[in-house]
C-alpha cells in the first residue's frame, strides 16, 4: 500500500541527524523539571487552601519566582528570602510571591518541600489578613 509522504511516520528531524520525538515519554518523571514540580506543589497547596478559605484566597494573586530581588526595600530591616506579600493598593490586588530557590535549598525531601510551601503560603495569608497562621491552617508549623 502506497502512502502519501505526509502520512508517513517521521522519526528523524528535518536534516536526518537526530531523533524527532522525545527520548522518553512526557509522563515520565525525567520529563518534569524541578521548577515544574515546584509550581505543581504550589498549585496543589493553593487548591487545598481555596477549598477551606475561598474568601481569603480568591482575591489574592500568587506568583513564583526563582530568586528574590537583590535590592530589598529601604523599610525592610531583615527581608525574608523565601516569600513576600504585598498588600492591595489602588486598583491592584494583594499579591504573594514565593521564591523557589531559597525554599528548595532549605528542604531535604519532597515532603519537606511541601511542608515549606504550605507554611510560607499560610504565614503570608495570615500576614495579609492580620490573623494567626493557626486560624487558617491548624497544621501550620507541624511537620
From TrEMBL:
Among Pfam families, the record links this protein to:
Zincin_1
InterPro entries, per the entry: Zincin_1, Zincin_1_sf
Q: Which domain of life is it from?
A: Bacteria
What protein name does the entry list? Metallopeptidase family protein
Which species?
A: Bifidobacterium thermacidophilum
